[in-house]
Design goal:
single chain; alpha/beta; TIM Barrel; nine-stranded parallel beta sheet; 17% strand
Length: 319
């Protein structure tokens, strides 16, 4: 009104509020992304697709047998994968699990011997997870959290300067707090990173299991494997969800990653579809961001939008 002079601070506040209402607020005022996006993908060819670089992928996860360095076939596979990510300037995270066609748990000395051989072969690899989905009933660690802690201790005590996470856990496995509690009785030092595979959480867009883990442990939480499932085989039965549903789930991943700044990485599984269930009979899972011919699916578009990246729909001609 005439004759009334507002203080400078008040004028600035009113101006900022007006910009916000008009959607013109500075990008610096928007909440910053707190996580790094990577791929959980085991195909070396993935990392030569320029769209992977366009997404800003700088970390990738591979799951390998615990004795990978001792078995020529497995060693050749991980060597090719590591060479591919290294060419792409991507930092690898190596996660161990049971041996090929052998679900028995190795002893601590066996595990350490295999790990030291791996370190000798690939001294530049410095990020490790001691066991994949350690709470899953198909893993030998499911009923033996102290054994998983021994694997963790073996890596942590023989890999100075490395990032050594706790074992993977899975939101489908119920009360993982009990398993973690027993694990912590033996694990030293206390893990700084807790990998978690929240497949059920993101499908239902339900934060409960993630919040429970955040409240139970200290340190960072990584979504070490997660994705929108298109189809999968379970006990011989085909479950088909479709690419549209996978795109919806991909959006949920980023919503739930925003629950806490302690959630610092997302590893999306995986890049390329193996094809239709009928054509890809040897495969059990399709959560690909691109089709078998390389065309972008809705999930990839959701990921690109969340990361503020532009990704072509069609595969590059050179690829």
């Amino acid at each position: 009104m005439p004759g009334i002079t507002l203080p400078a601070k008040t004028l600035l506040a009113v101006f900022a509020a007006s910009l916000s209402l008009l959607g013109l607020a500075s990008a610096a005022q928007a909440p910053a992304t707190t996580f790094t996006f990577g791929l959980a993908d085991y195909e070396p060819a993935t990392f030569s697709d320029p769209r992977v670089a366009a997404l800003g992928v700088h970390t990738a996860r591979d799951v390998v047998p615990w004795n990978v360095a001792l078995v020529p076939r497995d060693r050749a596979a991980v060597t090719a994968w590591l060479a591919a990510v290294r060419r792409a300037s991507i930092t690898p995270l190596i996660t161990f699990q049971h041996a090929r066609n052998d679900s028995r748990a190795p002893g601590k000395a066996q595990f350490l011997r295999a790990f030291l051989r791996f370190r000798a072969l690939f001294p530049w690899v410095t990020e490790f997870c001691p066991w994949n989905e350690a709470t899953h009933s198909g893993q030998p660690t499911a009923r033996h959290p102290r054994l998983a802690a021994q694997y963790y201790n073996a890596i942590a005590s023989h890999c100075s300067g490395c990032t050594v996470t706790a074992p993977d856990t899975l939101d489908a496995d119920g009360n993982i707090e009990s398993w973690i509690g027993t694990f912590l009785q033996t694990a030293h030092p206390y893990p700084k990173v807790w990998p978690f595979n929240p497949y059920l959480s993101v499908r239902a867009n339900n934060p409960r299991a993630i919040r429970r883990l955040l409240s139970y442990v200290h340190g960072q939480v990584w979504f070490s494997e997660v994705g929108g499932i298109v189809w999968w085989r379970f006990h011989g039965r085909l479950i088909y969800r479709g690419v549209a549903d996978a795109g919806r789930v991909a959006k949920n991943i980023f919503r739930l990653a925003g629950l806490s700044p302690r959630i610092t990485r997302i590893y999306y599984y995986h890049w390329r579809s193996p094809g239709t269930p009928q054509a890809a009979k040897k495969f059990t899972w399709d959560a690909g961001l691109v089709s078998s011919s390389g065309v972008a699916r809705p999930a990839l578009l959701a990921v690109a939008k969340a990361l503020h990246r532009h990704i072509p729909m069609a595969p590059p001609g050179s690829f």
